[in-house]
């Protein structure tokens, strides 16, 4: 039996009933009074690194101890590492060496298991437990943040907390919908009702057979334990409880001597001048320096949060925190990133005693970074938990600091137990960038610690410094907004011969700009003839693909065309949907570059400005599928880096290459916009990406050819097709059922033609083969073709033959299965 005289107003008696590892209770916790109507005292952990500063490796090792306990209870097998862990927890000796050895020999996990850490105190504990396993482990933690873009939210309440609402935001993380065991991790269980609340919420989504509740301390009464038995029967599931220490407690109060009504009164009573001079002394004139660590992280989650005033923070989250879900396979990369960040911060140290502080839920990443910053490091975190300070031996909060939360000014935050002048430096870590004026209340309190220097560490800077799109192009703004940077005055146009030599010598095509000629009368004649011939066919194809988009994706979408060939296609699809459904969908045109990927700044701009809408990518047609493949890779890379999945199911008017599922037709025919350059695409050039022209926060580049306005037929083209929509709608609706019910084959059939051409003509570089009428037209306009291949019996190739004749390019008959024709780039080494 242990008695804790928290004050002359409050006494708690603890009876230990289970201590499987024989850890002395004083190694795990002390006690303090707290300002909470539901429970007036707090078990203050000596191993968490929350209210009391600890060696960061001790907090990590504590998580390993809890992980070992779970493994041994679940698998009924002793771990050889447990002995070393317990030796350190009991004696404090060999901490760093033991942590290093266990990190090199992590615990096995026999089946996929999901660990869930409770915000805010147990986010780091849950993460440390999860990271103790070598594989088959998954982790997500609850949060009190209101994240606006995230879907699939799970919400539940905490029973006796000062901040009761919890949310879970699984993002691209399906473990909550699997059959795997779920392990709830918390620092302490008093009644267990919060754990049962989350178990019930998860069980509603996907019932499973096995749950565990893992904690350092377990103070449930017999009645509370019976609630777990009842819940097992109700859910038809096993709920296992595992802890390092279990028992019961009894609270004795003296009603005639109440605790102070205000925490500020308690601070004045309990914080003498020689301890901290809290609320009575001025701030120490400490130097403040801001440092950023975002270059050390490779994966972010592009979501915004909103505080209680409705103010939005658009800085990305770090994926590695676990707030949105992570798995053990990601740990190796994350450990190395945190090690590098710690070594970087170590270079700024000038004090033998340094305090590193996490903030709120953001605990584990700062803790890990701190563990790599050298000797003399202590770690703790800010908290929402209000504790009555009392500068007496054995009490859990010797002093207290109060400030408005930088994340939400309506929330009061605290930190505790910093003796005046004890630390020469304080590093305080924020996951996301905070406006500097919001940091001032916290900095003012940190200065009262007597530290000579304070470092504000931001791990993810605000990427909201994206440019606002200016007016660009010749289309009406309601038709399309170009997310592109006009660099026309900064780049020299180059002729086809010069560009071809540069490309074949290794210069990327996006780093150069071809000369944009005024279209000749012959070109314009081809354009007008093909427009007259195919306007109805294009209108029907545009209507069909638009209908397919609505049926497959719904109306909560934003259209994103791939400049520049995709721009008029996006406009036509948008206009058809306006005609047919009277909906005004936002439409942007952005850059994608083969070999460099999509413009991520443009994607981020769209997602930030249209939360809740999904992106539908659009292009004009498919050739051999290079851009289709580039888009697949770009979407996967974006999700990996920013944490948000994008659908790479691109929609096109024509898909002769059999590359996509959303198309209007698979016929290889002449789309008139293919025979002109900027003058049918809003007077913009092909997109540009060169390091000296495009900055970190810029959109990809383009040139706006204002001087060609008299030759522009961009709106003539889209208007001509739009005029056909009323007359072709009935045809579209007649064709639609068959189009929807016919199995869509994505066979990449066109690539068989391409591979055959490569073999027959000795073409090593696949990008030298340009199949289809659209690509053949473009290669004749932009590059130096070697020859043009035409399928026997192909019709309507007048413009191809005209361009080839003008440029003296040989035309050969060749058996093609998917395409009407194909252009071959001239390898310069051929004679």
Automatic annotation (TrEMBL):
Q: Does the keyword Electron transport apply?
A: no
The record places domain Cysteine protease StiP N-terminal at 473-721
Q: Which organism is it from?
A: Desulfonema magnum
According to the entry, every stretch annotated as the Orotate phosphoribosyltransferase-like domain falls at 28-248
Taxonomic lineage of this organism? Bacteria, Pseudomonadati, Thermodesulfobacteriota, Desulfobacteria, Desulfobacterales
Question: TRSP domain: which residues?
Answer: 321-446
Enumerate the spans annotated as PELOTA RNA-binding domain.
748-826
Query: A GO molecular function for this record?
Result: glycosyltransferase activity
Judging by the UniProt lineage, the source's domain of life is Bacteria
Kindly state which keywords UniProt assigns to this record, in alphabetical order.
Answer: Glycosyltransferase, Transferase
Q: What is this protein called?
A: Phosphoribosyltransferase family protein
Coiled coil segments of this chain: none
């Amino acid at each position: 039996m242990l008695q804790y005289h928290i004050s002359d107003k409050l006494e708690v008696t603890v009876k230990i009933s289970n201590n499987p590892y024989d850890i002395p209770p004083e190694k795990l916790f002390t006690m303090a009074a707290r300002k909470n109507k539901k429970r007036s005292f707090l078990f203050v952990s000596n191993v968490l690194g929350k209210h009391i500063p600890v060696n960061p490796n001790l907090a990590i090792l504590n998580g390993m101890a809890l992980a070992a306990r779970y493994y041994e209870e679940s698998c009924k097998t002793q771990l050889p590492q447990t002995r070393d862990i317990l030796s350190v927890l009991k004696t404090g000796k060999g901490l760093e060496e033991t942590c290093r050895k266990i990190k090199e020999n992590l615990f096995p996990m026999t089946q996929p298991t999901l660990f869930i850490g409770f915000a805010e105190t147990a986010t780091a504990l849950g993460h440390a437990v999860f990271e103790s396993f070598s594989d088959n482990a998954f982790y997500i933690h609850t949060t009190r943040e209101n994240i606006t873009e995230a879907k699939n939210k799970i919400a539940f309440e905490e029973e006796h907390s000062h901040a009761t609402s919890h949310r879970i935001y699984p993002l691209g993380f399906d473990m909550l919908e699997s059959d795997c065991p779920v392990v709830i991790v918390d620092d302490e269980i008093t009644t267990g009702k919060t754990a049962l609340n989350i178990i019930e919420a998860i069980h509603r989504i996907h019932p499973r057979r096995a749950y565990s509740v893992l904690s350092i301390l377990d103070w449930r009464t017999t009645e509370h334990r019976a609630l777990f038995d009842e819940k097992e029967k109700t859910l038809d599931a096993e709920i296992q409880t595992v802890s390092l220490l279990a028992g019961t407690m009894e609270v004795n109060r003296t009603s005639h001597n109440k605790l102070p009504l205000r925490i500020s009164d308690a601070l004045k009573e309990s914080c003498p001048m020689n301890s901290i001079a809290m609320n009575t002394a001025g701030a120490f004139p400490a130097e403040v320096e801001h440092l950023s660590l975002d270059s050390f992280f490779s994966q972010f989650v592009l979501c915004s949060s909103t505080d209680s005033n409705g103010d939005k923070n658009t800085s990305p989250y770090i994926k590695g925190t676990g707030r949105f879900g992570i798995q053990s396979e990601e740990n190796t990369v994350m450990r190395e990133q945190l090690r590098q960040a710690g070594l970087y911060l170590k270079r700024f140290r000038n004090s033998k005693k340094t305090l590193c502080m996490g903030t709120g839920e953001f605990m584990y990443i700062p803790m890990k970074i701190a563990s790599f910053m050298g000797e003399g490091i202590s770690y703790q975190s800010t908290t929402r938990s209000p504790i009555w300070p009392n500068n007496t031996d054995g009490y859990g909060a010797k002093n207290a600091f109060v400030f408005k939360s930088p994340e939400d000014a309506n929330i009061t935050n605290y930190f505790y137990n910093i003796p005046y002048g004890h630390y020469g430096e304080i590093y305080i870590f924020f996951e996301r960038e905070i406006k500097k004026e919001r940091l001032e209340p916290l900095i003012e309190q940190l200065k009262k610690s007597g530290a000579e220097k304070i470092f504000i560490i931001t791990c993810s800077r605000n990427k909201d410094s994206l440019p606002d799109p200016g007016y660009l192009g010749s289309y009406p703004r309601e038709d399309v907004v170009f997310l592109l940077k006009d660099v026309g005055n900064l780049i020299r146009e180059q002729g086809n011969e010069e560009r071809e030599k540069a490309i074949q010598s290794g210069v990327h095509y996006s780093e150069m700009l071809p000369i944009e000629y005024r279209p000749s009368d012959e070109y314009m004649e081809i354009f007008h003839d093909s427009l007259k011939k195919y306007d109805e066919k294009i209108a029907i194809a545009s209507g069909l693909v638009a209908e397919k988009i609505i049926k497959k994706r719904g109306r909560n979408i934003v259209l994103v065309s791939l400049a520049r060939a995709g721009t008029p296609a996006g406009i036509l699809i948008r206009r058809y949907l306006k005609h047919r459904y009277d909906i005004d969908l936002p439409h942007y045109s952005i850059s994608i570059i083969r070999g460099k990927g999509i413009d991520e700044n443009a994607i981020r701009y769209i997602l930030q400005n249209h939360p809740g809408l999904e992106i539908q990518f659009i292009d004009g047609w498919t050739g051999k599928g290079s851009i289709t493949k580039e888009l697949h890779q770009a979407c996967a890379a974006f999700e990996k880096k920013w944490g948000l999945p994008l659908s790479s199911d691109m929609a096109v008017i024509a898909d002769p290459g059999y590359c996509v599922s959303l198309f209007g037709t698979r016929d290889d025919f002449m789309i008139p916009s293919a025979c002109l350059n900027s003058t049918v695409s809003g007077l913009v050039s092909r997109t540009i990406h060169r390091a000296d022209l495009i900055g970190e926060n810029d959109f990809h580049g383009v040139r706006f050819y204002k001087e060609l306005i008299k030759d522009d037929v961009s709106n003539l083209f889209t208007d001509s097709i739009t005029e056909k929509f009323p007359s072709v709608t009935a045809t579209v609706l007649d064709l639609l059922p068959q189009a929807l019910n016919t199995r869509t084959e994505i066979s990449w059939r066109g690539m068989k033609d391409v591979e055959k051409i490569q073999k027959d003509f000795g073409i090593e570089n696949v990008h030298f083969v340009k199949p289809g009428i659209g690509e053949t037209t473009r290669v004749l306009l932009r590059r130096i073709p070697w020859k043009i291949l035409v399928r026997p019996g192909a019709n309507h190739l007048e413009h191809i033959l005209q361009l080839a004749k003008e440029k003296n390019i040989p035309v050969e008959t060749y058996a093609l299965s998917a395409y009407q024709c194909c252009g071959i780039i001239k390898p310069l080494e051929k004679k």
